[in-house]
Amino acid sequence: MVAAVSISHIYKHYGNLHALKGVDFEIPKGSFFGLLGPNGAGKSTLINIMAGLVRATQGTVRILDHDVRLQWRQARHALGIVPQELAIDPFFTVHEVLRLQSGYFGLGRENTPWIDELLHVLNLSDKANTNLQKLSGGMKRRVLIALALVHKPPIVVLDEPTAGVDVELRQVLWEFANDLHQKGHTIVLTTHYIEEAERLCEKIAILNEGQLVALDNTSVLLARYPYRLLRLSLTCHDVILPTGLQDKVQSFLKNELVLRLHKEKDQIGEILESLRGANIQFSDLHTEEPGLEDVFLSLTSREKGKK
Amino acid sequence: MNWYGLYTLFGKEVWRFMKVASQTILTPIITVLLYLLVFVSVLEEHVTVYENISYTAFLISGLIMMSIIQNAFANTSSSFFQSKMMGSLIFLLLPPLSTFEFYLAFIGAAVVRGLVVGLGVWIATLWFIVLPIYNLWILLCFAILGSAILGTLGLIASIWADKWDQISGFQNFIILPLTFLSGVFYRIDTLPEFWQKISYYNPFFYMIDGFRYGFFGISEMNVAISLAIVCLFFTAVSAFCLWILHIGYKIRY
Ligand SMILES: Nc1ncnc2c1ncn2[C@@H]1O[C@H](COP(=O)(O)OP(=O)(O)OP(=O)(O)O)[C@@H](O)[C@H]1O
Ligand SMILES: [Mg+2]
């Protein structure tokens, strides 16, 4: 089967800055795909290369098997991009920009019912004739989503759609993205809310400093993380931990001690034994399975620390 | 060709300046009327340009062409630069519009703006003088080529510029001197020889001179030569503009 997006050997240099250093992966058709990475990892750059907004220094991107440089018309028809920045032409109303955008894709009046449906689904119907300048940030975000979907693209790329969005709208956007996915669209999502990706995405790629550091199904990625957390509520915070435990401390705030234990190498029994040996009392304890955030941190920030 | 996309973008650009018609059409007309009040009352008696043609008629024909080309420049430069600065340009870069379609839409709208303003100035100046029309086709031909050239220059300037200052610099240090030294206000062959020679290298001179021929049937240059030079200049600036659009200079970096 043809991949929705196929990225091969992509390099992007901005002068001396190497934003992408040989990125190579595929986004399967019909998947809900997460693209994660810390600030400046190169996520937006990669998305802009897919969209033809930025030209790769080296390498190719194919959208449904159309090279973005050579078969750009087909590639752009297949792609709907929701950009990270909230920038819209303030000259027009919501309905007008949507009609114009649909026109640029070669769609005329026949597309009006779809535009109206988008306005309805995104809860913008009552703002249809409002000038874009007069919309709040969250409304603008919804207009950006409508703009990206106006030509019914099979692949939808959302670059941090939930940044600066309130809880309610975030729920609406999740539901909306899920619906699109159910209808067969391929969804590519970038976000800094890791739990959002964990909840929504079937497959996740993690970029760090322009390189792919992980690519797997979300569940596999989680299982691959060899640690779990032991959370203890101490009765007294003024304690000296035994040396064997000190490098296992994930956090120690007030009375709450969180230890990061290797699933195979560390035995909980031994840990508790050594705590008791050091005369450290605790009132409560429980273990936690790692979340995607722990995996993410271990692959990105920790890696930096090791260098 | 994405004809419908081209048509939509062209329509949007026309719509954009029509929405603020008081700025984009009325203001330039008033500017011309001010020029007329000043120059005509001072110079009408003293300056003879051609026999049988009053200075007022000579000046008005030049001013019409001047407003046509200045507004064509303003149309592309302000529209393109504004969307580039605000970031909304990406909505024109994401759809399947080719460089050529993009170019045609912007230049088409610049030509429309030029012609609408030109027509407006012509109507407003009917109050001063009714210009004869020697050949409408020649008039239209120079008006369209002139506004297409300046529309293209406006696009080039706004692609290149990073700040508004640079756009107005382009306008004040390149477009304005070339316009003023092109024979809008006087005949080139009445200038001292040195300036005369320089003026013959100014492509704007041929636009104005050829345009004037459309009204009076008289010009300094043979109108065929003017037309050829203007066409050549148009080809050169368009080719350059299409090339920078094609390589994505400062747009698709
Ligand atoms: N136009 C540009 N010129 C120079 N450098 C750039 C340009 N665009 C991006 N960069 C650099 O490329 C790197 C990757 O940026 P990018 O925007 O892709 O990061 P990101 O992963 O999307 O980050 P964020 O999570 O903050 O959105 C950064 O170091 C950035 O400074
Ligand atoms: Mg980004």
Report what the structure shows:
- The complex is a heterodimer of chains A (307) and B (253).
- By secondary structure, chain A is α/β, with parallel strands linked by helices.
- Helix content of chain A is 35%, strand content 29%.
- The longest helix of chain B is centred in the N-terminal third of the chain and has 32 residues, at 55-86.
- Chain B has one domain (3-247).
- In chain B, helix 1 runs parallel beside helix 5 (99-125) and helix 3 (55-86) runs antiparallel to helix 5.
- In chain B, 42% of the residues are buried.
- Chain B is mostly helical and 253 residues long.
- At the A-B interface, helix 2 and helix 3 of A face helix 1 and helix 4 of B.
- Bound molecules: adenosine-5'-triphosphate and magnesium ion.
Topology:
The complex is a heterodimer of chains A (307) and B (253).
Chain A: E1 5-14, E2 17-27, E3 32-36, H1 43-51, E4 58-63, E5 66-67, H2 72-78, E6 79-82, H3 94-104, H4 112-121, H5 137-149, E7 155-159, H6 167-182, E8 186-190, H7 194-200, E9 203-208, E10 211-217, H8 218-224, E11 227-234, H9 243-246, E12 249-253, E13 256-262, H10 268-277, E14 282-288, H11 292-299, H12 301-306
Parallel strand pairs in A: 3-8, 3-9, 6-7, 7-8
Antiparallel strand pairs in A: 1-2, 1-4, 4-5, 9-10, 11-13, 11-14, 12-13
Chain B: H1 3-19, H2 21-43, H3 55-86, H4 90-93, H5 99-125, H6 136-160, H7 164-180, H8 193-199, H9 203-216, H10 223-247
The complex binds adenosine-5'-triphosphate and magnesium ion.
